[in-house]
Every structure is written in structure tokens, then in C-alpha cells.
Amino acid sequence: MSKKIKSKDQGLRFNVIDKLLKKDKGYSVKEITSHVNSVLEGEGIKVDKRTIYSDLDDLREKYELNILKVGVRYKYADPNDGYRKPRANASDKETLALGLEAFASLKHLSFFDKFSDVVNRLLVGNLYEGIKDDEKKRIIQIGESYNSTGYQYIEKIYQAIKNKKAIRVLYTNNAGVTNWRVISPYILKEYRNQWYMVSYTKDSSRKPSSSVFALSKIDSLTILDQASYVIDVSFNADDYFMYSLGVYHDLYKEPIVVKLKFTGAIHVQRLKTSKLHSTMELISMTDNEIVVSLEVYNSPDLTALILGFKNEVEVLEPEILRDEIKNIIGKMATVYH
């Protein structure tokens, strides 16, 4: 938290005193007074020992600095401390701890430890100890994946995106074909505890375009210094997944408008306050029935969403999707005949 100094003169004194207290040998009040007067002589500032005693008290109380007195000499208990170092009160610490519990699902990444170290040094000490201890119960529970997720590549991909560097990956596609690809990564996305990246690629089976890559299907990744990073002017990170349920995206398909009828008071209450998708619109509603529309890609994620509601949802439109769902249900019936 920021603290107000009493005057510009005090701020100048603090700068001098701060440098002295960082030194391990420590300084007496007499030595500090002499040093302040010598350094700030050009500013027309002259102080006595009583002013320095008052400044030391302010540094302790207002900035919560741990200043040791060894004999007649004063110094910081931690030489890395200082009055310009950001401080955090109890409320700040609670806010950080809350955010870090939510962030703890990534605790096995190398940058989690780096982030922890930075915050610890700058602010509040070891907030993460409880989060990293697997035997301690976390208040916030974030879903975790038990499969290969490609977590180990996140930091490299992030750096490549930030520095606009192309990367070379050994990637296995959905057909099980593995080959090397040179791609330009744009964004990282998490969905259902799996990580993905949207990247521009020239070596796909279709014309050059942005595509979604699952990090779990990467076997090797290298950041390239020489290969040119391609910027797709048509790519927009904010609306790339506008019509997606999950991470499914197809530049060459148009989204469809889906009209769904849900039966049951529980669905009415839930859908009144919780959208299935950002494009969801309410068509009609009674106490026991609600009809909504979505504008999304016709994808496996859409099929899974509909089937997940079992007999409590009906596809009203479009007819082609209604027939697809009817066909799937028919095949399922033969399994359980």
C-alpha cells in the first residue's frame, strides 16, 4: 500500500536513510544525521538527531519496516527491505491468497514458482506454502486433469507469443499422423482442464490459416529465432471463439442458429440466470418450459451438450440437427436393447 510522507523534505531524508539502513554494518543516529545533512546540503536541508529519531519511528510504524538496533547502530533486519518496497496489509494478503488458490491448479508449472518468488520478495512473504502442500485442504477447488496436458509447453508458448517468435512443434493430429510443423502462435486457451493454442500454420491440409492445436498432442517444441512470425490480419483474439462451444473452430463453416426447448422447472430457473453460451437468447418461458436459441458451430461439443440433458431437451431447429440427434439416439437404443 502507498504511504504519504509528511513533506518533500522527509521524502528526501527517507531516500538517504533507506540506503544507510540497507548496509549490514548499521549506522548510529549521529552518523545518519551527519550523512543526511551532507547529502542534502544542496537542497538547503539541515536536520538534528531528534528529526532522525522521528523518521526512524515513521519508517517502523507507517511502512512496517523491521529496523534493528544493535548497540547504537540501526539497520534493516532484511537488507532487501526498504520504504519504497510495496507493502500489503491483511486485506491485501487475503486477496492475493484467494487469487493464488484459484491459480494453484498450475502450481506444477515452472512459472508458478517464479511468480511466487516475485510476490514473496515484493510483498508479503510466503503465501504459497499452504497452496503447495498437497496435504493441506484448499478452500477453492479447481478442476485438474489426469491426462497429458502439455503444461510443460505453456511458458515457452507464452514467450513466443509475447516476443512474436515462430515455433517448431512435433505434433500428432486427430488422425494419428505425427509430423513437424512451423507455426506462429497467437493465443493460449484452457478448456475443461486441457490447454490449447491458436496458431497460424502453412502446412495444413487446407490453405494457410489459423488453427487450434492441443498442447497434449505436442511431443517436442522449439522457439525459432530465424523463422519469420506470420501475422494473420484476419485473426481477432476477442471473437475467434465467438461461435464455439469449447475450442471447436472452423474458419470455413458458418455457425447455425439452434432452437432448444427445455422441460422442467429446474432448467427454467437455471437458464433464467445462467447462459449456455454468450449468444443465448430467451424465446419463451413458462413455469415448466423454456425455449432458447444459440448461434454456434454444429460441432461434437454441441451434440454432447444436447445429449447431456437427456429427455429434458428437444431440438426444435434446425431440422438437420434434429435429425442428427434422432439418429444418434436410435443408435444408442440398439446398444441397450
Topology overview:
Elements: H1 8-21, E1 27-28, H2 29-39, H3 49-61, E2 67-70, E3 73-76, H4 90-103, H5 110-124, H6 129-132, H7 154-162, E4 167-172, E5 178-191, E6 194-201, E7 209-214, E8 218-223, E9 256-263, H8 265-273, E10 281-285, E11 289-296, H9 300-308, E12 313-317, H10 319-335
Antiparallel strand pairs: 1-3, 2-3, 4-5, 4-8, 5-6, 6-7, 9-11, 9-12, 10-11
Describe this structure in words.
It is a single chain. The chain is of the alpha+beta class and 337 residues long. It has 4 domains: 8-76, Arc Repressor Mutant, subunit A, CATH 1.10.10; 90-132; 151-223, SH3 type barrels; 256-335, Alpha-Beta Plaits (2-Layer Sandwich), CATH 3.30.70. It is 34% helix and 23% strand. The protein has helices spanning 8-21, 29-39, 49-61, 90-103, 110-124, 129-132, 154-162, 265-273, 300-308, 319-335, and strands at residues 27-28, 67-70, 73-76, 167-172, 178-191, 194-201, 209-214, 218-223, 256-263, 281-285, 289-296, 313-317. Strands 7-6-5-4-8 form a 5-stranded antiparallel sheet. Strands 10-11-9-12 form a 4-stranded antiparallel sheet. The longest helix is centred in the last third of the chain and has 17 residues, at 319-335. The radius of gyration is 30 Å and the shape is elongated. The termini are far apart.
